[in-house]
Predict the 3D structure of the following.
Amino acid sequence: MIPLPGWRDLTSLRRTRQPTVRGALARPRVTALLAAARVGVVVAPAGYGKTTALTAFPGPLCWLTLDADDADPQVLAAGLALAAEPLAGGGAPAALLDAGAAPRLVAARVGDLLERTGATLVLDDAHHLTHPQSAELLSRLLGGPGQRTRLILLSRVPLTLPELTRLDAAGEVARLSVAELAFTPQEVSALAAAQGLHLTPAEVRSAHTLTEGWPIALRFLVQAAVQGRVRFAALDDLHSDAQLGTLFTYLAQEVLGPLDPALRALLTQSSVFEELTPDLLQSVLDERQAGQLLDALAGSGTFLTRTGEVYRAHPLLRAHLRAQLRPEEITRLAARGAAFFEATGRPRRALAAHLQAGHDTRAAELLAHHGRDWLAQGRTHLVLRSVNAVPPAAWTPTLYALAGDALRASSRYAEALARYAQASPLDRALGEARVALDTVQPALAWDPLATAARLMDAAGQAGLHRLQAENLLNAGQLADALALDPELIGGARYCLRSGNLTAALRLATRAAQGETGGERAARNHREGLLLLSFLQALLGQGAEAEARAREGLAEGVRLESPFVQSLALARLGHALLIQNDLTGAAQVYREAFEMARGVAGRLQVEPLMGLTVIAARSGDAGSANVQLQDALERSSGDRYMAGLLMLSAGLGQLQGGFPEQAQARLGEARALLAGIGDRFGQGAAELALYAAGRTPELAVSARAAALQYPSLLATYSLLSPFPERAQRAVLLARLGEGASTEEALALGAVGRALGYAALPRPDQVPGFEVDVRVLGRLTVSRSGREQRDWGRAKARDLLLLLALHPDGLAREVAQDLLFPDADPPVAERNFRVILHALGQVLEEGAVSGTFLERGDWLRLRPSPDLRVDIQAAWAVLGSPVGSAGRLTELLALPLRLAEVALEGVQEAAAQYVNRLSDALVAEAAAALGHGDSERAIQAAERALMLDPAHEPATRVLMRSMHLAGNPAAVARRYSALTTALANLGLSPLPETVALYRALTEL
């Protein structure tokens, strides 16, 4: 007797195995999208990495690949049971089937099991769930309201399942399609790098454009490049490399095999065109059913996508299919398409069709007519690809001028000039002038502008005047520029060069808004973000200048513009320089200089300016002089930049401690900038000259500069006389000596910005800063240098006492604490000695009493030039729980006071430890309340470093580690607490024990 088949005979374990792909690139972006919802629905054609995107999915994963047999609920239930068996308790669904349970009960049990174990079930080829009884099992699997069963459905065709509609409305479904699965340019670069290929941004763009991010195609493309079968540099021209079509062969049969012959023929013939519409196919192929056929292709899971009324095939599919057409057939179809596109007003499509049809002259005419409009829209790559596709024999002088414009927009200036040389005389002159304007080389623009003026008709003179006015602005001839084009007065660059920084900042901020993203051409030195960064550096806004420079650098990478990238690096160098990161600034200045090679020598001026300042500040006069002269030679007639170079070089010498040498350059800079009309630059030079020479006759102009441009002293800016706040304060105090009452009030605002209550007097500003540290180790630093000679050891003890008593200490009390056993006369004499020694440590070179208040009452006098770490620590400890930045500041505080054997110090040390540990625990609890277990763990662990027996800290830490999914760490921390308490003869509180049991029993 033949036994009846069991439920295991209805399916196969093979279907429950997750496919694996060797060398798959991790897709954390895609994984995060899928993990963010209860149900993930992924619909995409073959090769889009639906399965490989799940290789790093968090938590246990069960897999079931469906087929047509799963329309039978018994078969589907059997597959679900097999898929769930590896889970803890996974035998329960199988036991139900063994007992003859209904499929819907098995599905419900699998759903319960998935929820209990935190596993996710993946159903591949989920389009087989269309049977009504299969849909019922899916509903049972997902469960009712409140159940959290996690499911991912993979399909090549759209899924229309009733159960998904309900979950969609509840916001529990994440839907991913080709748009989300396609590789980003960053992922293209990472994929290539994993194979040892380091692509340029242009090569990444070409590969991404060609494949449209199709993962399997990119894998084959990278492999072909590694093997030398494909060159990335040639990818822009799809038609030039027949081998690209073979990249699709691997999947062609899978994609095209199931197609109806009529649909396949339509797809093959239409591969001549990038975009398809029903009216195009009706006109070119005489296909009256074009709309229905295109809809059928788009819905069949092939690489035909629809946007509105336009359909597109994947570029590699088109290349594969086009290779199957005879050349004469391509020519015939392209010619008909070109006529259709021209008749319907689609010049770009008509141009591509004419090129395929061999109508080179007409293609060149269309390109010459529309190319400049495309450039104005930022479609530089389109124009470059198009002009390169036109055979040289069809080129006209107009096309050469267009090619020059496209190359100029791509910062390829040498190539642009070579194209302009073959344009008409007027276009050549205008092209050469625009290259000089783009690269801010006014000396090179005068001759071509003069030639253009002779050749230009009356209608073009207004536009020419604008070019001439911009060159006058670049040359530093502001009055002449404004006379020629009065509208320049409303531009940010004019405001900058005339010294109206307030207006320039407002205009640059407006220009920078919305500048990132979108298709556009690089504006090179006119980039709003980078102009804004420069202005912020001039105003001493270091962090803001750095942020704008980095945004501009990212935009330069996106635009594939070496000009923008080099300029962004130079501006980043300025931002780092005014934040006193000289090492970082020097590095990016050098990167900017190297990137500018082969682009424009003028681009190297700003990096050289920064390197000149750094060399001069370090005392390397030789390097500073060489770099300055190099920069001046490359400034190409730009008097503003020449003045800025001389001013920066003089400032570097002044800041390096060579005021006499600085005066000559500062004087020359003042003359240059005054001649231009740059009031800000002139004021900065006059302020620096006064700082260098301190001559009374310069005080009036220097004071006027400080009043008009207070940021020069209030903060360290690119043109400030000194980077150190204390030195700027000394300069401010000297300027205030001869100020009128009104001027003194205005200068008081600068004093407040420097930390003083009002305009300081010269005897209130020592010219250096003192940093007193009593946390961790007791030290005193002056302007960043630690003091080693204390004169008397007990001077350290006295400093600690005064630091712990910010309101001061009676002289007798301090004396008794330091010399408790000495006779009064001896103690008094010794105390005078150590008080003098402490004064020398704190105030040497300053007026006595600047920091140390003497007399019957001793005190560290509050001053912006004196910082005491314990006082700052008390302020942090006293701030509200959860306030911005408090936890970060607490974590940075040292754990102990310096060890000093003085009565009363131990009590203060214990108070500090207790308050710090309590504050850390409070912040840990607040972080945990916001779901930030990582920060909560950091704070609680630091509190336990102070006190291993701190039960509140341990309770927060155990809850945090439980939330982070680390039960073993919970047990370790509880054990450590019991040991610490046992050493004190104690045991955990009941609430701690109860919490531990609750967490470990979950």
User: Anything to note?
Assistant: The CA atoms of residues 85 and 91 lie 5 Å apart. The longest strand covers residues 150-155. The chain is about 60% helix and 5% strand.
